[in-house]
Specification:
By secondary structure, the chain is of the alpha/beta class. It has 13 helices and 13 strands. Helices cover 38% and strands 16% of the residues. Helix 1 packs across helix 7 and helix 4 packs parallel to helix 5. It starts with 9 loop residues before the first strand and ends in a 12-residue tail after the last helix.
Amino acid sequence: MPGIGDCPVRVIVIGGTGHVGSWLTPRLVRAGHAVICVSRSQRQPYHADDAWRDVERVVLDRAAAEAEGTFGSSIGALRSEVVIDLTCYTLDGARQLVDALNGRVEQFLHCGTIWVHGMGIEVPITEDAPRRPISDYGRRKAAIEEYLMAQHAENGFPAAILHPGHFVGPGWVPLNPAANFNPEVFAAIARGEEIALPNFGRETLHHVHCDDVAQAFEKAVANRLRAVGESFHVASPAALTMAGYAESVAGWFGREARIRFLPWEEWRATVSPKDADFTWDHIARSPNCSIEKARRLLGYEPRYRSLEAIRESLAWLCASGTVPSLASFTLS
């Protein structure tokens, strides 16, 4: 089969206009690959790039096709050496692709999540740590990873899994210092108001800029022989503490952080159930993941530290007017 090592190949990106795909698809084009972007609509990517003119666009409703049992065969009919799946959340979806693609592709890359890990024992957590997911999402992703690795071991299916941290990038609200997605936390800090954090604010969050996730996928394609059969963490060089994150954001707005620390149950009563659930999902894990394996085998080197990625995203929020309470602020 053509396309060994870093030679240009035909690549299918499933979910190619989403958070990661918006950055990955142009990267692959610039690397010389022929790229097919599969998405459920003709929506515009989050990140504009002239390279999109050279991308073949295919509209395919994954949920409907999976329900009909035709999704795998539809992807197989597009004929490529490499398939990158950024939107698989069920074991059945993974099985349909494996059944259709086994023996027909050189590489299959699955986008996992660091949430396959639950509470860490030794940190930074490495890829060989036992999988102890504590949420439905983490359990489903861990089951997909286990299945793909078994298919590689038993049948030679050329799978590799990349596990990103918390996505950050211009175009959406980043995970905030309270470990949820309520943008009013940023607005309160910008106004110099006191915010409350659970416990002592020492739990950790591990962000990653979506372009760095895209970089890792691009490098996995370029290093196919090293990547196949492996799982990789893809995150920034270091996790953040929640309190340290809040202090940094305050500094960007020329403020001193005013933080009140509350026991979990007391803090939970101060926010909406939705925000509390998001916060618990994050602090119960306190992710802190090693990226040394991706550095060593793929040559992955993130351009952004966590705070740099968040600052870019927050600057976009302020400038875009997407969040009215932040529209009058600029970052120093």
